[in-house]
């Protein structure tokens, strides 16, 4: 074996050394890059979240709260008064997780919904859930929204699915219903505390 290595030194040892250097340098460079950009990425995510919340509920401040270590939500306040609650929920769609931000008024009715991520859904079908003609249907609905393929009755707490994207539409509806359930838990605690 040693004789083989001596004769083929250039053919074996040099490529092996180069691969070893690559295997050490690349992960170190990635770790350094991640460390340098982590704060910027977190700041950008926080800024984007604040902008999305501002589009849903106009408020002076958004305070992060926790419910019994089960979920996080935001309380929107204007002039010291609570004007709504914002929840970020996600459900499994056709191609991956669908993330939704839901703003709920103090009376329990949905103020607005924003689709945060449907990028893994089918272009031209599931990604159409990010269009206002779909997510706008959730406004003024309450807990227990039903999804129909067509012919939904808005007065019956129903909405129409995106054509050809029932799985994605179901994921969005489940995420919004999860937000309304989280709101009900918060309201239940607040009502028992009075």
Give the topology, please.
Layout lengths: L1 H6 L1 H48 L4 E7 L3 E8 L2 E12 L4 E8 L5 E8 L14 H4 L10 E3 L9 E3 L5 H28 L1
Parallel strand pairs: 6-7
Antiparallel strand pairs: 1-2, 2-3, 3-4, 4-5
Task: Summarize the structure in short.
44% of the residues lie in helices and 25% in strands. It has helices spanning 2-7, 9-56, 132-135, 166-193, and strands at 61-67, 71-78, 81-92, 97-104, 110-117, 146-148, 158-160.
Describe the model.
With 194 residues, the chain is α+β, with helices and mostly antiparallel strands. It folds into two domains: 2-49; 59-193, no CATH class. Helices cover 44% and strands 25% of the residues. The protein has four helices and seven strands; from the N terminus they run ααβββββαββα. The chain has a five-stranded antiparallel β-sheet with strand order 1-2-3-4-5, sandwiched between helices. The protein starts with a helix and ends with a helix. The model has no long low-confidence stretch (mean pLDDT 90).
For this entry, give a set of tags.
44% helix; alpha+beta
What average pLDDT do the residues reach?
Answer: 90
Structural class: alpha+beta
* Run of helices and strands: HHEEEEEHEEH
The amount of beta strand, in percent, is 25-35%
Roughly how many Å is the radius of gyration? 25 Å
Q: Spatial order of the strands in the main sheet? A: 1-2-3-4-5
Give the tally of β-strands: 7
Euclidean distance between termini CA atoms: 83 Å
- What is the total number of structural domains? 2
Poorly predicted regions are none
**Residue share in helix:** 40-55%
Morphology call: elongated
